[in-house]
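tool_call: predict_structure(chain=1)
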Amino acid sequence: MEYSVQPLTDALKAAREKKALSQRAFSARIGVPQSRLSKIESGAVDLRASSLLAIARALDLDVMLVPRQLVPAVTSLINQAIGQPGRATAESEPIRPAYRLDDEDADA
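tool_result:
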């Protein structure tokens, strides 16, 4: 069984960019070569759990496992906390989970 990690790596990249950190500056901060960070962000390498945790913590993020039935509630709380509406608008989209273990988004 294979799952796409692209939404997860996209979320990490967006968090890095929101902090206005270049790949070079951020890779120096976390002690990873810039070329490796580039591969992680592009989804070209299999991201180890320990690397994911280290990158997330350096971006002031936490990695959590959320029961699938609670994902809508967690997403709503996140949207409220950052001031985004619960529905997509022309200007913004609601935050989506960084990854899913099912194929619900395959049709989107």
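agent: The helical segments are 6-18, 23-30, 34-42, 49-58, 71-82. Proceeding to next step.
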